[in-house]
Amino acid sequence: MAHRRLTNRRALVTGASSGIGRALAVELARRGVDLVLLARREERLAEVAKQVAAFNRRAIPIVGDVTDADARRRALDAARDELGGLDILVNNAGVAAHGRFAEASPERIRPIMEVNFFAPVELIREAIPLLRAGVQPMVVNIGSILGERGSPHKSEYSASKFALHGFSQAVRPELARLGIDVLVVAAGPTETEHFDVLLEGTAELPWGNPPRQPAEAVARTIVRAIERGRRDVVTGWRSRLLLLANRLFPGVVDRVMARYG
Ligand SMILES: NC(=O)c1ccc[n+]([C@@H]2O[C@H](COP(=O)([O-])OP(=O)(O)OC[C@H]3O[C@@H](n4cnc5c(N)ncnc54)[C@H](OP(=O)(O)O)[C@@H]3O)[C@@H](O)[C@H]2O)c1
């Protein structure tokens, strides 16, 4: 994968109205990237666009739901017509729910899979022609450490992120043939609105809340990984330690998690 300079590149960031997506949009703008920002909350997008403009970069807000094909189309059209193309697609929009699987409503899994898996997959499919014409194009999929190690009380969310990680790994060699790199971000706990907007359940988990990194620090790690042309990145040393422990001693991690089943 190629190292890339970000000056004058063009990116589309989904879920850019808060948290990691917002911080990533601002960090990319700081490095010279023009942006299309897609999310549902218009006023929030306008605030982010203002932050981007402070770096003398363009930000085109597109208000819409990432699961809606028309919203995705409008975002890609904006990249093509207003920015002249697309070099980086960041699939960041995501939702979650907490609670045991057996106690969950059967309806819980569908919206999580729609936003976290089907929407990014469809957006990649739709963006391929634009990306192929871009400069050192890259798809950045914001996954999770729970896309590498599933967690009780987050079964649907873990499944959605495993699906995204698996899809990314599978499609990476195919997209490489088209000149498009794929970066998968296994994000660790991050201080965002993620835990305030759960589809079901509360933020409190039986094992308490692990320390969360600021979204700005996570965004800087992701941007460095984009610049260095990495394939995978895990954000935060605690997350790297957890995934290492899981690889070396999966039975021990299983036993710890079993206490909270
Ligand atoms: N926070 C963490 O600890 C953590 C850990 C690992 C991975 N992640 C992942 O990081 C990504 C960003 O989450 P975050 O932590 O930054 O949470 P967040 O602050 O809640 O941000 C989520 C973003 O996604 C957007 N979004 C949600 N549903 C959408 C939809 N249907 N259509 C369009 N946009 C939608 C939201 O915007 P609107 O509401 O305005 O649409 C918002 O901008 C997610 O993929 C999440 O799974 C987070």
Describe the structure.
The chain is an alpha/beta fold. The protein has one domain: 3-Layer(aba) Sandwich (Rossmann fold). It has eight helices and nine strands. It has helices at residues 19-30, 42-53, 69-83, 109-132, 155-177, 215-228, 237-248, 250-258; strands spanning 10-14, 34-39, 59-63, 88-91, 138-144, 181-187, 190-191, 213-214, 232-234. The strands form two sheets. A seven-stranded parallel β-sheet has the order 3-2-1-4-5-6-9, with helices on both faces. Strands 7-8 form a two-stranded parallel sheet. Helix 5 links the parallel strand 5 and strand 6. The longest helix has 24 residues, at 109-132. The model has no long low-confidence stretch (mean pLDDT 97). Residues 14-21, 39-41, 44, 65-67, 92-95, 115, 142, 144, 187, 189-190, 192-194, 197 line the site of NADP nicotinamide-adenine-dinucleotide phosphate.
